[in-house]
């Protein structure tokens, strides 16, 4: 088993969907990534920052999921990052209502010493300067996975490109891949992104699944068709966490095993959207995950006879 | 091997895409369905109508693909159905420029006597009254597959619903499934459609693949990710033709074999869009299809170890 360093936000979210709304609940990219990675018993450490207003019980929750939190800085006099958003009826688009950076504004990440030799690094979505800071603290990572979004393309493109040049895998959604490359075809876009650095490109298409590209090879994982998506918040992070966690746990970073990691991430993401925030991921049982993976097999595996 | 009756348009198409435009070329739902079905050596017969302006060489082309054309009526004094369309830059939407029904207006389909005992019927997209006329001529079909579109929902909904109540499989695109049922979720929509008659519902999502529903089971086939879609005309018909042809050839109408049929149809559709009209399907070799099916295996098959 490989160690896994997770950097990203640990935050409060307030969410409104057609099904209801929440007060401030536990959220943040590193939270979803960590909870997902814990499902496959990866040895994960969270590198992030929260304020004095962050409840002890949330930290206990992360610890209970076997996540190392010695790299989770608590700034007593500061306030925790807060995001609030409202989803439209189609659940594919949302408006951000509030973004309060708070302690995140001057975040200087510190990777715990006993995780600086980790083989796998998962850079969750936040400022590219922070992601870069984490990469620089790692001794000899074998697999660095980057998640990012259009906000950083709009505001800190040069810095983001520097991060992209240093990672092995990038996960990005379809519109962002098009924005980053100016190419409509995702096949062409993925090739351009590979030229920027990453040997592996994962393009997330939400309800339309995810594509994994490597050299001339392509793998596709569908999203599980659902009667109802309750809250999409954190689904992309959960996918990335399941992906990185699966790879860290197995220690096999081949393209063939990445296929399994993509399916694992997709399975966990399909749970995430069933309830608000982290509610469905917390205490998710191995048996439930096992059954969901079987559903993915049923959904995608066939046995055509090639003459 | 089962016999396959194919009803649908045999037509002239004039197509404009960002890559170029054509004069009147061979088109029509039954044409694409027939060419696709011929790939798997199904014993197919085309039931359709053309005018005196329809070239002998096109009829010879269908015959050369082992299609029975004794049910292809030629009305000497009439003109062949003509459709002209222009695709937008994203290739997902198009404007119809011209629709001339011509001989199709009073089409009274006649299934050749030696195909009235066929096990499989593929009702290509055209007026529901014609589709109904074909169903009534069949003695004891084991599998009736229906393809249709929103035009008939808008104009002849009651008649279309009568056809839907009599078929085993319906293929329909995602927006049409939503229009027909008033449901946004495709899972919920498929359940409502199954209540209308068909035991199997295939929802086509274009570049996002296709879903097969039966009772509580779901299968998903992706579209092959392509650098460039040259001309989408006929892709849906080719998919349906590959699907019905595969089932007719194998004589196995189980859900598990329908998975293979969906993959087969998807593979043929991925060829169709590479050139204008039927150009890529004509003379497509078994070897090419075999290689494409292997690509679909690479694209979708994984080997995750379930603990």
Question: What's the short story on this structure?
Answer:
2 copies of one chain form a homodimer. By secondary structure, chain A is α/β, with parallel strands linked by helices. Chain A has helices at residues 29-39, 56-64, 128-137, 150-155, 157-165, 174-181, 186-195, 235-250, 255-272, 286-300; strands at residues 3-7, 11-17, 20-21, 25-27, 43-51, 72-75, 82-87, 94-100, 120-123, 143-147, 169-173, 200-204, 210-214, 217-221.
Proportion of residues in β-strands of chain A: 15-25%
Catalogue the unreliable spans of chain A: none
Q: Largest contact between protein chains?
A: A-B, 41 and 41 residues
What quaternary form is this? homodimer
- In N-to-C order, the SSE pattern of chain A is EEEEHEHEEEEHEHHEHHEEEHHH
- Give the total of domains of chain A: 1
**Under CATH, the topology of chain A is which?**
UDP-N-acetylmuramoyl-L-alanine:D-glutamate ligase
Q: State the distance separating the first and last CA atoms of chain A.
A: 41 Å
| Helix content percent band of chain A | 25-40%
Largest sheet of chain A: 9 strands, mixed
State the total count of DSSP E strands of chain A: 14
User: Based on helices, strands and strand pairing, what is the structural class of chain A?
Assistant: alpha/beta
Main sheet strand line-up of chain A: 6-5-1-9-10-11-12-13-14
What is the CATH first-level class name of chain A?
Alpha Beta
Number of helices of chain A: 10
Calculate the mean pLDDT score of chain A and round it. Answer: 96
**What's the CATH architecture name of chain A?**
3-Layer(aba) Sandwich
Q: Any idea what the radius of gyration of chain A is?
A: 18 Å
């Amino acid at each position: 088993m490989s160690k896994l360093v997770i950097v990203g936000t640990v935050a409060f979210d307030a969410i409104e969907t057609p099904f209801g709304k929440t007060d401030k609940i536990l959220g943040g990219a590193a939270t979803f990534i960590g909870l997902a990675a814990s499902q496959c018993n990866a040895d994960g450490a969270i590198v992030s920052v929260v304020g004095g207003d962050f409840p002890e019980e949330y930290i206990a929750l992360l610890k209970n999921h076997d996540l190392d939190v010695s790299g989770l800085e608590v700034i007593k006099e500061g306030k925790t990052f807060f995001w609030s958003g409202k989803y439209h009826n189609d659940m594919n688009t949302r408006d951000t209502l509030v973004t309060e950076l708070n302690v995140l504004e001057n975040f200087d990440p510190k990777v715990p010493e006993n995780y600086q030799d980790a083989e796998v690094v998962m850079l969750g979505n936040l400022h590219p300067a922070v992601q870069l800071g984490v990469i620089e603290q790692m001794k000899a990572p074998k697999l660095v996975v980057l998640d990012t979004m259009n906000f950083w393309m709009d505001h800190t493109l040069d810095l983001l490109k520097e991060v992209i040049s240093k990672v092995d895998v990038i996960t990005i959604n379809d519109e962002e891949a098009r924005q980053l490359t100016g190419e409509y075809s995702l096949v062409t876009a993925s090739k351009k992104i590979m030229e920027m650095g990453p040997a592996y490109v994962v393009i997330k298409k939400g309800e339309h699944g995810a594509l994994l590209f490597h050299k001339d090879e392509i793998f596709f994982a569908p999203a599980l068709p659902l009667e109802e998506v309750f809250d999409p918040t954190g689904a992309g992070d959960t996918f990335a966490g399941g992906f990185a966690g699966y790879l860290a746990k197995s220690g096999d970073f081949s393209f063939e095993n990445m296929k399994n990691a993509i399916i694992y991430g997709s399975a966990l993401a399909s749970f995430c959207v069933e309830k608000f925030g982290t509610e469905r991921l917390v205490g998710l049982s191995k048996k439930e995950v096992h059954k969901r993976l079987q559903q993915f097999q049923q959904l995608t595996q066939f046995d055509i006879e090639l003459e």
